[in-house]
Amino acid sequence: MTTALTAKGRATRARIVESAAHVLREAGLAATLDDIRERSRTSKSQLFHYFPEGKDQLLLAVAQFEADRVLDDQQPHLGRLDTWEAWHNWRDAVVARYEAQGDTCPLGSLFQQIGRSTPGARAIVVELLRTWQEHLATGVRALRAGGLLPESYDVDGAAAAMLAGIQGGVSIMLATGRPEHLKASLDWNIARMREAAAVAP
Predict the structure, then answer these.
(1) What is the pTM of this model?
(2) Which helix (H) or strand (E) holds 170?
(3) Which terminus, N or C, of the chain has the lesser number of Cβ atoms within 10 Å?
(4) So where are the chain's domains?
């Protein structure tokens, strides 16, 4: 639908989605369509014009917005992981992002409402993780191309381990409110790469 909208229509739809994201972050499961309409300054007819299938369709759009935000918050570091300094800057950005988020996960809260296993929600999660892992793999390849890692280094394995460590660290942080496991996972995975670089011929 978004491709068929005018520029003004796309801007209105984006305003609704961003407003809904803010409302849901603040109110969680208690948020209503009326709250979203008030925040986005739209009428009921406008809301259903852009989201004719109702609240679940809007929640999926907000889930996509939040998934995009996960990666956007790591930029520009995630897009240029070609030096050790860049990796450590990215690590600090990831930690800062999740410390600022606190003990709630907007994306997780949305999936509680729409169901993580529904096709649309599952596709959002799969694409987020795929894109995130590919960014990390691109960074590992950049280190290898720059001679900072041996040619035999397992790029995909390193990227997968890094992403799994982040997800595990964030899960523990959400449960405990403490970032130590997230920091430890990031530091351990980066240190392992640096150890490989040190023994490279």
Answers:
(1) 0.87
(2) helix 155-176
(3) C
(4) 2-52, 62-199
Structure tokens at 145: 């191309």
Neighbours of 55 (CB within 10 A): 16
Helices 155-176, 119-145: crossing angle, 10 deg rounding: 130
Which superfamily, per CATH, for 62-199? Tetracycline Repressor, domain 2 (1.10.357.10)
Tens-binned pLDDT, residue by residue, of the chain (201 aa): 555 778 888 999 999 999 999 998 888 767 888 999 999 999 999 999 999 988 889 989 999 999 999 999 999 999 999 999 999 999 999 999 999 988 777 777 777 777 666 778 889 989 999 999 999 999 999 999 999 999 999 999 999 999 999 999 999 999 999 999 999 999 999 999 999 987 655
Dist. CA 116–CA 26, nearest whole Å: 21
Max intra-chain CA distance, the chain: 67
191: enclosing H helix or E strand: helix 180-199
Distance in angstroms (rounded) separating the CA atoms of residues 123 and 65: 13
